[in-house]
Each structure stands twice: as structure tokens, then as C-alpha cells.
């Protein structure tokens, strides 16, 4: 009888150890998945931040380069539309002698799906016009669709949130 109980105890111990090993494996896998999701969300948020800073930081002395930076950080329909208006936009910036310096104050990834994410962005820009020379702060709240394209995260849609 003792031999039977000892055998059952050993078998139970083996089953418990295997169960804990399986549970540990599942926890490691879930941690890995969560870490990957967080890293991907951070990459989308960084793409939105970079694109918005490019969009709200302009200097009339180098307007063409600044506009090209916006185009380079964009893709899809947004890029196509911005490229079509780039010459007019550059002209307005140069003629009004605008200098803006933008900062992103917060980002939050609302959703991710495949190679696209919707990122909420809060930003501030300090605007100086050639006419009055004083800085005027502007607050921006934006919904930015970011698309991963060849390992780069670029704006594909920008919406202003009231």
C-alpha cells in the first residue's frame, strides 16, 4: 500500500510540475506578445510625433526644405494632397515670413490594425509672423493615421479635433 501511495505521490508531483512549467511558458509567451504590442504602439506614436512636429515647425527662410520634410514623413492620400498644394503652401509661408516651432505634448495610440494605427496627438506651436514679430502660441489636437511602410512610420491622414 505504501508503495502505491508513494507512486501516486510521485505521479501527482510530476503532473503538478508539468502544469507549472506549461503555465510559466504561457506567461512568458503572453509577456512577449504584450512587449511587442507596446513597442509597436510606441513606434506608431513616434511616427505621429515626428510627422506632426515636421508639419507645425516651419521657417520661411527654409520653407521648401520644411515642406519636403512633411512630404517625406507622409504617405498615401495625405502625401498626394500635400504634394499638390506644396508650392502654394511654400509661397504663403515665405510671403508671410512665418516661423513656427512645434512641440508634441502628448500622444496616445487609440487603435492598431495590421500596419496602421490611429494616434491622438496634442501639440503646441509658437508662431512668429514677420509683420508683428511677437510669438503667438497655438494649441493643436489631432487624430493622425500612421501607416508602416517599409519599416518607416508615416502619416497617412491628419484630422483636426475640435
TrEMBL record:
Tagged with keyword Transmembrane helix: yes
Record-annotated membrane-spanning stretches: 6-29
Keyword line: Membrane, Transmembrane, Transmembrane helix
GO cellular component, one term: membrane
Superkingdom of the source species: Bacteria
Subcellular location(s) per record: Membrane
This protein's name: VirB8 family protein
Amino acid at each position: 500500500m505504501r508503495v502505491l501511495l508513494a507512486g501516486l505521490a510521485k505521479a501527482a508531483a510530476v503532473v503538478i510540475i508539468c502544469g507549472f512549467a506549461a503555465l510559466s511558458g504561457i506567461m512568458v509567451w503572453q509577456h512577449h506578445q504584450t512587449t511587442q504590442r507596446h513597442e509597436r504602439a510606441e513606434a506608431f506614436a513616434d511616427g505621429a510625433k515626428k510627422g506632426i512636429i515636421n508639419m507645425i515647425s516651419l521657417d520661411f527662410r527654409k520653407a521648401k526644405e520644411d515642406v519636403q520634410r512633411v512630404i517625406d514623413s507622409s504617405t498615401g492620400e495625405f502625401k498626394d494632397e500635400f504634394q499638390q498644394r506644396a508650392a502654394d503652401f511654400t509661397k504663403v509661408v515665405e510671403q508671410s515670413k512665418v516661423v513656427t516651432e512645434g512641440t508634441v505634448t502628448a500622444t496616445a495610440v487609440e487603435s492598431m490594425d495590421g500596419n496602421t494605427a490611429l494616434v491622438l496627438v496634442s501639440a503646441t506651436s509658437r508662431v512668429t509672423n514677420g509683420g508683428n514679430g511677437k510669438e503667438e502660441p497655438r494649441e493643436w489636437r489631432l487624430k493622425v493615421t500612421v501607416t508602416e511602410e517599409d519599416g518607416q512610420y508615416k502619416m497617412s491622414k491628419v484630422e483636426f479635433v475640435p
